[in-house]
Specification:
Distance between the termini of chain A: 37 Å
Oligomer: heterodimer
Strand content of chain B: over 45%
Largest interface: A-B, 23 and 22 residues
Low-confidence stretches of chain B: none
Mean pLDDT of chain A: 92
Number of strands of chain A: 11
Shape of chain A: globular
Structural class of chain A: mainly beta
Largest sheet of chain B: 7 strands, mixed
Helix content of chain A: under 10%
Shape of chain B: globular
Helix content of chain B: under 10%
Structural class of chain B: mainly beta
Number of strands of chain B: 11
Radius of gyration of chain A: 13 Å
Order of helices and strands of chain A: EEEEEEEEEEE
Distance between the termini of chain B: 36 Å
Low-confidence stretches of chain A: none
Chain lengths: 110, 112
């Protein structure tokens, strides 16, 4: 089992749609969680951290479920500019064991 | 904002050459990382460093070495470049092990 698993997609959605990505992780002792966005041929950029209480940043909402060991990202009112690959990232305990998911590709179409 | 700067966006080298990739960060971060990213394989950790002159192997260190002589600079060295090292190389830094990593723009390296 991979340490961090994501649905690779691609997700093809129309503008204005709501889309949700899920990510599962295997290490129950993981301490911190993030979503990154990566545009084609560019570097990954931090989209948002994920907190146990859930957090929102504009059209983006992130949730963490420690009991089930998954995190989610919800994008409301999708824009063409949201087209990218979304990476789920999990930091382990002790040291610097950061695990990047393989990413979920999103295409938003007019 | 954190700034991580990689020395080259694109680089073309020949097999057998010794190749240096440089990375500089301006946020006084303790920890720096080198990854490579290939289609279908995601990000793979080559080496990381948690302090000056300290280094740790990542998941795929073979064929690479690193140098961290100053806190802000982390260099990746391909000792004898081979065609299977053609890839996108990404440098990242972070203040602590639980904080997010910040990436440079990446270097697209082609080995001919």
């Amino acid at each position: 089992r991979k340490e961090v698993e994501q649905d690779p997609g691609p997700f093809n959605v129309p503008e204005g749609a709501t889309v949700a990505f899920n990510c599962t992780y295997s290490n129950s002792a993981s301490q911190s969680f993030f979503w990154y966005r990566q545009d084609c041929r560019k570097e990954p950029k931090l989209l948002m951290s994920v907190y146990s209480s859930g957090n929102e940043d504009g059209r983006f909402t992130a949730q963490l479920n420690r009991a089930s060991q998954y995190i989610s990202l919800l994008i409301r009112d999708s824009k063409l500019s949201d087209s990218a690959t979304y990476l789920c990232v999990v930091n382990g305990t002790g040291g610097f064991k950061t695990i990047f998911g393989a990413g979920t590709r999103l295409f938003v179409k007019a | 904002d954190v700034k991580v700067t990689q020395s080259s966006r694109y680089l073309v080298k020949r097999t057998g050459e010794k190749v240096f990739l440089e990375c500089v960060q301006d946020m006084d971060h303790e920890n720096m990382f080198w990854y490579r990213q290939d289609p279908g394989l995601g990000l793979r950790l080559i080496y990381f460093s948690y302090d000056v002159k300290m280094k740790e192997k990542g998941d795929i260190p073979e064929g690479y070495s690193v140098s961290r002589e100053k806190k802000e600079r982390f260099s990746l060295i391909l000792e004898s470049a081979s065609t299977n090292q053609t890839s996108m190389y990404l440098c990242a830094s972070t203040a602590t092990g639980t904080q997010p990593q910040h990436f440079g723009d990446g270097t697209r390296l082609s080995i001919l």
